[in-house]
Amino acid sequence: MDPSLIAQNVLSPPILFFALGLIATWVRSDLAVPPAVAKALSVYLLFAIGFHGGVELYRSGFEWIVIWTLGAAILASFLLPMAGYMVLRLRIRAADAAGIAACYGSVSAVTFITAISFLDRTEVAHSGYMVAAMALMESPAIISGVLLARWASRSKPTETPASPVAQPAAPHGRGWRALTHEALANGAVLLLLGSLVIGYLTGDAGWDALRPLVKEPFQGLLCLFLLDMGLVAAKRLGDLRQSGMMLLAFALLAPLAQAGVGIVTARALGLQPGDALLLTILFASASYIAVPAALRLALPDANPSLYLPMSLGVTFPLNIAVGIPLYMAIIEWWWMT
C-alpha cells in the first residue's frame, strides 16, 4: 500500500476536524457543538447524499449490475449480523451480542461519505447508485439483530443479564409489525430513502435546482459534523475500556474481516475499483446513528454503552483513517492482476 494514500487521507480536512474533536475532549476544552446544530448537520448530510444518489441512479438506470449490487448489499446486511453474533455470543449475553451485531451489519453514512470524498480527491470514478445500496442496508441489519435476540430469548428464557447498566424491560404488545415499522420509519432511514426517490424522480432538472445547496457546502458541513463526532467519540471511549479486551478486539477485527467479504463480493460482481471501494466500506462500517436509535425501541435490553463506543469510538476512526486507503490499495492490486 502506498503510504502517501494514508497520509493524504489522514491530512484531509474532515479527518483533521474529527481529530480536533478528540483532542478537545481529552484536554477538557469547553468546545461543543449544540445538539440542535449536530442534528441539523445529520439531516443535511443524509438529505444531500440521498438526493445526489437518486440523481445518479436516474442517470445510470436499472441495469443488471445495479440490481445485483443492491441485492448483494441487502443480503449482506441481513447475514453479517449473524456471523458477528456467533462470535460475540461466546463472551457476552444474547441481547448485547444481537445489538452489537446489528450495528456491524448496518452502515455508517459518514464513513461512506468520507470514502466518496477520498475517491473524488484521488480522481477515481464511482457510481451514484451505491448510495441506494447504503440506504437499503440499514433496515435488514436491525431486523436480523432483533430476530437473533428473540431466538436466543426463547432458547434460554432464564438468562441473567450481565450488563453493568440496568436496562428497561422489553415493551409489551410490540409485535413484528411495530418492529418493522420502526426499522422502515426510522427518521434517518426515511430521509435517506425519501431523498433518494426524490432525486431519482426529478433527475437532472432537480439536480440543477438544488446543486448550490447539495454540492457546494457539502465538504464544509461534513467537517463540522466530524468535529462533533470527534467530541462524542472521545467521551465514549471510556465506556469501552470498562467492557474488556474482547469487545475492543471485535471492534478492530470485525471491520477488516467484513471488508474482506466486501472486496470478494465486489470482485465477483465485476464492479469498477471506485464502486468496489464503496461496497467494501459499506460492508466494513458500523452504524452509530440510525441503528442505535432503532435499537432503543426494538431491542431495549441491549446495552448502548457497549455498541456505541465500539462503532463510533473504534471502528469509525479505524475505517476513515486507515481502512479506506488500505481497502483501496488491496482493490487496485487485485483488479490489476
From TrEMBL:
<feature type="transmembrane region" description="Helical">
    <location>
        <begin position="311"/>
        <end position="335"/>
    </location>
</feature>
<dbReference type="InterPro" id="IPR010293">
    <property type="entry name" value="Sbt_1"/>
</dbReference>
<keyword id="KW-0812">Transmembrane</keyword>
<keyword id="KW-0472">Membrane</keyword>
<feature type="transmembrane region" description="Helical">
    <location>
        <begin position="246"/>
        <end position="270"/>
    </location>
</feature>
<protein>
    <submittedName>
        <fullName>Sodium-dependent bicarbonate transport family permease</fullName>
    </submittedName>
</protein>
<dbReference type="Pfam" id="PF05982">
    <property type="entry name" value="Sbt_1"/>
</dbReference>
<keyword id="KW-1133">Transmembrane helix</keyword>
<feature type="transmembrane region" description="Helical">
    <location>
        <begin position="131"/>
        <end position="149"/>
    </location>
</feature>
<feature type="transmembrane region" description="Helical">
    <location>
        <begin position="276"/>
        <end position="299"/>
    </location>
</feature>
<feature type="transmembrane region" description="Helical">
    <location>
        <begin position="36"/>
        <end position="53"/>
    </location>
</feature>
<feature type="transmembrane region" description="Helical">
    <location>
        <begin position="6"/>
        <end position="27"/>
    </location>
</feature>
<feature type="transmembrane region" description="Helical">
    <location>
        <begin position="100"/>
        <end position="119"/>
    </location>
</feature>
<feature type="transmembrane region" description="Helical">
    <location>
        <begin position="65"/>
        <end position="88"/>
    </location>
</feature>
<feature type="transmembrane region" description="Helical">
    <location>
        <begin position="183"/>
        <end position="202"/>
    </location>
</feature>
